[in-house]
């Protein structure tokens, strides 16, 4: 998964993860050059959806097989997906 991180004077001013629009990439470079505002970190909606679906599958598999490990991993992934939704 491609990640583009912009720095200005050694400090991160923006980060884009996954497929982004041209406008988002331009605003990232504007932020790095000092002509634009800091770019808010956002997780693409498609990635959040994949995380949530995978979490549901892992939790279900953990419950059906009695595997606590799968259920816990699924729950952690669900929290990660939730964090991605909150950042939107």
Strand content: 5-15%
Q: What is the chain-wise order of helices and strands?
A: EEHHH
Class based on secondary structure composition and strand pairing = alpha+beta
What would you call the shape?
A: elongated
Kindly report how far apart the N and C termini lie.
19 Å
Walk across the major sheet and give the strand order.
1-2
How many E strands?
A: 2
Tell me the Rg in angstroms: 17 Å
How many domain units?
2
Largest sheet: 2 strands, antiparallel
Number of helices: 3
Enumerate the spans where pLDDT stays under 50 for 5 or more consecutive residues: none
Helix content: 55-70%
For the residues shown, what is the average pLDDT?
83
How is the secondary structure organized here?
Layout: E1 3-8, E2 11-17, H1 22-33, H2 45-65, H3 68-87
Antiparallel strand pairs: 1-2
């Amino acid at each position: 998964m491609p990640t583009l991180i912009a720095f200005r004077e050694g400090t991160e001013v923006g980060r884009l993860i996954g497929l982004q629009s041209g406008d988002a990439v331009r605003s990232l470079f504007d932020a790095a050059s000092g002509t634009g505002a800091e770019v808010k970190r956002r997780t693409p909606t498609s990635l959040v959806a994949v995380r949530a679906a995978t979490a549901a599958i892992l939790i279900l598999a953990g419950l059906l097989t009695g595997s606590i490990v799968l259920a816990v991993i699924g729950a952690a992934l669900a929290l990660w997906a939730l964090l991605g939704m909150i950042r939107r």
